[in-house]
Amino acid sequence: MANEKRKNLTPVQQEYHQFEQDRETKRPVLKNCVRAFFVGGLICAIGQAISYFYMYFFDFTEKTVGNPTVATMVFIAMLLTGFGVYDRLAQFAGAGSAVPVTGFGNAVISAAIEHRTEGFVLGVGGNMFKLAGSVILFGTFSAFVVALIKTIAVKWGGLG
Amino acid sequence: MKKWFVLISMFFLMSCAHEQKEQQQSLQQENITNVSHDGSAKRSDQQQAKRAVDMLKEREDVKDAVAVEANGRLLVAYQVKHLHRFRMKQIEKEVGKALNEAFGKKVIASHDLKIFWKTKALKEKIDTKNISEKEIEKEMTVIQKLSEEQT
C-alpha cells in the first residue's frame, strides 16, 4: 500500500496491515522465473524442431514455415490440454507455458471443456473464445496500429 | 529441489554436448564445401559460381555459402552467422548489391536455410553426377520459385 494512503488509516487498521504483511506468504519470484525460462525455452526448442522437420521433409522455406509450425504447436497444446497434461505443466511453469503460442491453444480448449455442460452451441461455442478472443482482438488491433505507424513513418518520415 | 537441480544440470550438459556436435558438424560442412569447391573447379561452367562463393566467404558475417550457375543465371545461397542475423536486411541488401555489381548475369541470392540445403544438394549432384546444363537450369527454376514464395 502506498505511504500516502497508509497515513489515512486508523491505528487499528495500521496494526492489522502490519499483522497481514508479517504472515503473508512470500512469492518465490526467482524460482518462478527460472521455471518459466526453462519450460518456455523447451517449448520454443520443440517449435524449432518442428519447423526444421517441415523444412527438411516438405517444401517450406524459413519464410513460410511459421504458419504450419504455429498450427502444429497449437494443435499439440490442445491435445495435451484435453488429456490434462498441459494443466500440470502450467501449474509448474506458469508464464513459461502461457506466453508461447501453446498457451493460446490451452486457453481455447480449457474454456471449451469448462462450459461443455451448458451445451455445444451456447456452452462450448459461446464460451470457447472467452479468453482467447481478447488475445485475437488485441493481436489484430495492435498489428493494425503498428502497420499504420510504419506506413506513416515510411511514406512521410523517409524511413525504410 | 535436489531432483530439479539434477534435471536442470542434465539439461544444460545435454545442450552443451549438442552444441559441440553442431560446431563439429559445421566444421565438417566447411570441409565438404571446400572439397566440393575443388570438384567444381573441374567444371568450366561453374567458375563464376566459385568466384561468388569465395567473395561471400570473405565477409565476416557469412558462415557458409554455396552457388550454382547455369545459362546466364547465378543462384547463390548463404548462411549468416547467428548474432549477425539482427542486421539481416542490411546484409541481404549489401550481398545482393555486391553480387549484382560483380556478375553481369541475373543473380538470385538467398539467405534462407531451405534454399541453402537445396542449392547444396544441387551442387553435390553437379559435382558427382555429370548432369546437363538444361537439368541444372530446371532445378534452379524450382529453387528460385521456392525462394520467391511469400506465404
UniProtKB/TrEMBL annotation, chain A:
The transmembrane segments are: 36-57, 69-86, 93-113, 128-149
Q: One Pfam family, please name it.
A: SpoVAC_SpoVAEB
**Which keywords does this Swiss-Prot/TrEMBL entry list?**
Membrane, Transmembrane, Transmembrane helix
Q: Which InterPro entries match?
A: Spore_V_AC, SpoVA
Q: Where is this region: Disordered?
A: 1-20
Presence of the UniProt keyword Transmembrane helix in the record: yes
Q: Known NCBIfam families for this protein?
A: spore_V_AC
**What protein name does the entry list?**
Stage V sporulation protein AC
Q: Which organism is it from?
A: Anoxybacillus ayderensis
Automatic annotation (TrEMBL), chain B:
Domain of life, source organism: Bacteria
Q: Which InterPro entries match?
A: Spore_lipoprot_YhcN/YlaJ-like
* Keywords from the named record: Lipoprotein
Supply the name of the protein.
Answer: Sporulation lipoprotein YhcN/YlaJ
Which species does the entry assign this protein to? Anoxybacillus ayderensis
Q: What is the lineage of its organism?
A: Bacteria, Bacillati, Bacillota, Bacilli, Bacillales
